[in-house]
Design goal:
- With 237 residues, the protein is α+β, with helices and mostly antiparallel strands.
- Helix content is 19%, strand content 23%.
- It is built from four helices and eleven strands, in the order ββββββββααβαβαβ.
- α3 packs parallel to α4.
- The two termini are 43 Å apart.
Amino acid sequence: TIVPSRGQYNIDDVNEVHYNIADGNISFDADTACIIPVITTDELSASMENNVLMNMREFKYRAYRRSDGSISAGFSSQDFMYRGIDGEKMFDDEDLYCQVVLTEDTNEDGTMDWQDGANALKTIIKDKINGGDIMADSFIHVGYNFASGAQQPFLKVADNMKRLSNLIDGFDQILVLKGYANEGHDSGHSDYDDINHRAGDAEDMQKAAEIMQGINSIMGIHINHSESYPEAKMYND
């Protein structure tokens, strides 16, 4: 039995799906992306963890038919991305990993199911969720620019965060800037250094970052690392 937890692309929806491999309802022809895989038999349950930088699509799975006609299925990691915006490596080759955990009945209920694999997974990811402590202790929100609209200019976002900081007594904030580049969200990828002119250019973005530092806040950017568009200067690189 396979129980992958998967997110739907461009939809804020994460759900569990349950498959019995023998039923043949998993695709034989194309990979299906997922976040957390759990595979369970009558005796064992397994799960996996990696450091693939592809949010909500860290793993993929597909069914295949064995020579005796029976059906099996397998999980694998998505492509590892280990170079940053400047082309330099963020990880050494030996730091890229995929870890598999295998277990028996972890909750001692006499039944092997996805819960056993999930319990085992917790033992290997407890200290590996980067920034998890910061996420738990911060108010998180998004500044969104889309389709040349500059709906959330950099300095407007920073000013709103200052007001919110006063309201919540300086509680930490995390801002994710979507559409920080080119004409907004998912425009001009992958020219990551083409800062959104309509939203204030690099100068205002830098000022906004400095303002946020003064109110216990940090800023991150959303990038599209799995697509590239023809209008981007680097499209043919």
